């Protein structure tokens, strides 16, 4: 997998923005390289509504050359023919993914060296490492691991790695300087009053 895909990786749900399709297009247009649809939390879409939304997101991704990843939903990822899937430590194991994903991008969340070394990475394309800093965007994110652990984890694998958790315009460069090939952000863009400016700043 081309590690440049991870350079600016946005994670969001259909309820993350006031005008999700319009705001996502703004983010994609100005430089987001990868998007993960993570439909969890409050006021989320399900069933056909989610499928319809995902197809619309896919069309915008294709318009701007943005890679589309689905979080922990094998059916949806297959149904819309997404570019890949992302799974956490408590989700389905990479080994158990259907054969459909053999030639797709598979992302895995890793929070420490133990999780990295205990995971079968044969089918994994990249790892998301974190939370590097404290975050309120994901209720199940756990305690911040810090820059040192980010560096230790990335030094122990050849897989491309994206730092996640509390990433902002002020600290993202430190992540890139300590082993991360890219950064995953949620609130840095979803809660921004100026999405274009925020995306541009995170790409400097």
UniProtKB/TrEMBL annotation:
Return the Gene3D superfamilies for the record: Aldolase class I (3.20.20.70)
Q: Which UniProt keywords apply?
A: Magnesium, Metal-binding, Thiamine biosynthesis, Transferase
Extract the Pfam families matched here. TMP-TENI
Name the residues that bind 2-[(2R,5Z)-2-carboxy-4-methylthiazol-5(2H)-ylidene]ethyl phosphate. 135-137, 166, 186-187
Which InterPro entries does the entry mention? Aldolase_TIM (IPR013785), ThiamineP_synth_sf (IPR036206), ThiamineP_synth_TenI (IPR022998), TMP_synthase (IPR034291)
For Mg(2+), which residues are the binding ones?
Answer: 72, 91
By sequence similarity, the record places it as follows: Belongs to the thiamine-phosphate synthase family.
Question: What is this protein's name?
Answer: Thiamine-phosphate synthase
What species is this protein from? Jeotgalicoccus aerolatus
Its gene is thiE
